[in-house]
């Protein structure tokens, strides 16, 4: 059981699209046909992902979140999709998604009920894993609502990991385990990584700057615990939903989310409406240089190096002796501010020894030139914005 996960998946942070944040639990297709969590929604998103460059940029999963189920299991005890909203069933939807060169993700819960009150997987772990595999599911997001104790919660996460492997199908396993443990006890991340491909640590991401800021603050506060465990096969999930292209973030805040999720080696799952997305948001989400940082094969998570008043300096070691560096300006008043830092800070003094080339990736790409080890670099950063560099 200690090697239960051993599925060879998620060598880099998974990328895709999921319905939760943007579409929540909209189930009235008569009143809201374009927003309803339904077969039609996922077919339309799969079409956009295949036709408009998302799949080619690396976004390969299209994920169903909570509220897809019928209110009860079938006569054989199996989960079933709501027959009105998913008339073809999940197997047909999976076949369609696969025909587009994409993979399908689905949602369940470790407890008696999902967070929205639909049937949970408690006491049905093996059956549900077999059901998902028979449908052709490629990822399971396993939530942690409505579990009666922390012991049952942990047992459920372990058992579903074993059950998924037992199906023989490659299914990425996305856990919420540490998030539900944290109010009571410190998670054992070594154990969690033995069972899960990525795991959520913090609250749901909202379409707001305060939400993005709180996630970054929490991550920096706990980085000594969480950074070292991340790597190929298992990733910290600061809540994977990229809310870029929605309503709550300014352009600079959108740049910050994209840059910092890349620095944190976070799973990149957009939650937006790909049928209605601005060219700027599309450019940012499909930015090849940022995605390359997120997907770097070395698989090391970045961390905060320093804080200076409103500025934060973060770095992430990359392959080929490179580093990604982010300068975040958390000030929410006034105009752009200049931040100057010594390059000897980077990579324990090794990043620019004896010299290095520096390229700005965000908010716009440009070559900054070659710098010596003892140099300083100045960048100008907008309020709530981030400058992302590759050194």
UniProtKB/TrEMBL annotation:
Keywords: Disulfide bond, Glycoprotein, Glycosidase, Hydrolase, Lipid metabolism, Lysosome, Signal. It catalyses: Hydrolysis of terminal, non-reducing alpha-D-galactose residues in alpha-D-galactosides, including galactose oligosaccharides, galactomannans and galactolipids; a globoside Gb3Cer + H2O = a beta-D-galactosyl-(1->4)-beta-D-glucosyl-(1<->1)-ceramide + D-galactose; a globoside Gb3Cer (d18:1(4E)) + H2O = a beta-D-Gal-(1->4)-beta-D-Glc-(1<->1)-Cer(d18:1(4E)) + D-galactose. GO terms for cellular component: extracellular region; lysosome; membrane. InterPro entries: Aldolase_TIM, GH, Glyco_hydro_27, Glyco_hydro_27/36_CS, Glyco_hydro_b, Melibiase/NAGA_C. It is an enzyme of class 3 (hydrolase). Residues 299-385 form the Alpha galactosidase A C-terminal domain. One of its GO terms (biological process) is oligosaccharide metabolic process. The keyword Glycoprotein applies. One of its GO terms (molecular function) is alpha-galactosidase activity. Catalyzes the hydrolysis of glycosphingolipids and participates in their degradation in the lysosome. Homodimer. This is Alpha-galactosidase. It comes from Molothrus ater (Brown-headed cowbird). The gene is Gla.
């Amino acid at each position: 059981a200690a090697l239960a996960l051993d599925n060879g998946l998620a060598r880099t942070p998974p990328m895709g699209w999921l319905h939760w944040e943007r579409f929540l639990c909209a189930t009235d297709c008569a009143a809201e046909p374009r927003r309803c969590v339904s077969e039609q929604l996922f077919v339309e998103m799969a079409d956009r992902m295949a036709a408009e460059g998302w799949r080619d940029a690396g976004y390969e999963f299209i994920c169903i979140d909570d509220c897809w189920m019928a209110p009860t299991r079938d006569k054989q005890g199996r989960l079933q999709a709501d027959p009105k909203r998913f008339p073809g069933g999940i197997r047909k939807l999976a076949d369609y998604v696969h025909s587009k060169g994409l993979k399908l993700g689905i949602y369940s819960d470790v407890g008696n009920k999902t967070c929205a009150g639909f049937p949970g997987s408690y006491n049905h772990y093996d059956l549900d894993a077999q059901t998902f595999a028979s449908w052709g599911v490629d990822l399971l997001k396993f939530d942690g609502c409505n579990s009666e104790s922390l012991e049952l919660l942990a047992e459920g996460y372990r058992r579903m990991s074993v059950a998924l492997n037992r199906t023989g199908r490659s299914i990425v396993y996305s856990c919420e385990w540490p998030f539900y443990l944290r109010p009571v006890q410190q998670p054992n991340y070594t154990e969690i990584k033995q069972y899960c491909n990525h795991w959520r640590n913090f609250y749901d991401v909202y379409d707001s700057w305060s939400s993005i800021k709180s996630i970054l603050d929490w991550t920096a506060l706990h980085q000594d615990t969480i950074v070292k465990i991340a790597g190929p096969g298992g990733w910290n999930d600061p809540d994977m939903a990229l809310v870029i292209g929605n309503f709550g973030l300014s352009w600079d805040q959108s740049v910050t989310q994209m840059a910092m999720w890349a620095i944190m080696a976070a799973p990149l799952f957009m939650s937006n409406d790909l049928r209605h997305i601005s060219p700027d948001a599309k450019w940012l989400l499909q930015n090849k240089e940022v995605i390359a940082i997120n997907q770097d094969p070395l698989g090391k998570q970045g961390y905060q190096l320093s804080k200076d008043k409103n500025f934060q300096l973060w770095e992430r070691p990359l392959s080929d002796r490179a580093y990604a560096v982010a300068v975040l300006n958390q000030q929410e008043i006034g105009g752009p501010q200049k931040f100057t830092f010594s390059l000897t800070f980077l990579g324990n003094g090794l990043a620019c020894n004896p010299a290095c080339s520096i390229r700005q990736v965000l908010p716009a790409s440009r070559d900054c030139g070659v710098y010596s080890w003892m140099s300083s670099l100045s960048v100008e950063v907008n309020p709530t914005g981030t400058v992302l560099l590759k050194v």
